[in-house]
Write the structure tokens for this entry.
Amino acid sequence: MSTAEAWTVGRLLTWTAEYLKKYGSTSPRLDAEVLLAEARHCARIDLYTAFAEEPSEEVRASFKEMVRRRAEGAPVAYLVGRKEFYSLSFEVNPDVLIPRPETEHLVVDAIDRAKQLTGQAPNSTQTAPTATAATQPTARVHETPNQPKNQPKSQPTSQSTGLSANNSAGEPASDSASDSVNPAAGGAGQGEDEIWRPKPVKSYAGLTIADVGTGSGSVAISLAKSLSGAKIMALDLSQPALALAARNVQKHAVENQVTLLASDLLSAVDSMTFDIIASNPPYVTEAEYAELPASVKNYEPKSALVSGPTGTEIIERLMPQSAARLRRGGWLLMEISPMIADKVVALVDRRMWAEPIITKDLSGHARIVSVCRL
């Protein structure tokens, strides 16, 4: 076989990208690169200096099998077993939802609240509303999340069954495991280990946070890495999800900050109170679920996606439980679907909660509802 006909890295990538495009991939070249890098046991960036190389039969066989499964609809993150979220690499499998970039807004908002509660950020339009503000009929809209600037990228690289976790499945982005663009970090991932992350100026010791529906643990762990000293209770109904989250907690060495607990929402939490409760609950309606892509419906856990006929059933349970577990002036932060934003705002009991605040994502869609406990 001549050099031009050999299945080099460059030729494999070109052919596979075209093939996956025919099968509906929205990021066929990226998918091909992530899968080939996995088969070669190398970083994706290493492919760019290896275009002329011809992979071994073993590598090509492994790559071919992953491409076949990807063409059938299997998410890339499940095929390689990991996904980048907030510049960290998380193990994922079909027991948990794949973390979406939209959920990074939940982390950013929680960090902002933590800074305000500990006096590390000046008061702004997002500070705790007063009881007077709570009487206003409509939610305030925070157009641009107050995200950290110039945060470096880390390497390339959810959530669960039960009443849980990160599920922007109604608007899925590319599920390529290693290369989601991180609005907080400012770019795509580069490898397996964190390269650099700004260190907190001050400890957040004494701050308590609950992550309700933790799934892979991506939100809880991201908060632990960003909020030195804060204690985080990561809750999920699914035991398989908690087992996976435990591996991620150990991987990122935050065992001293993150405690995992099996719980249906906050029902297993007894006397604890929190400063912040963050949640990405199931919010997809039954009707919406029927219209989701096969790559979501056939692979990701339905119980972590679907709330019920209206999409607000789980949120209706979470809000009163959170009111009983938050300190006065504490915050409940919930990721939502833009389609149910008005319904969620209407659920806010103004006798217990101040005026809700809506944070829009980078596409301009309502993504996070934040309410302060009066």
Remarks:
- The longest strand covers residues 326-335.
- The domain at 87-372 is CATH 3.40.50.150 (Rossmann fold).
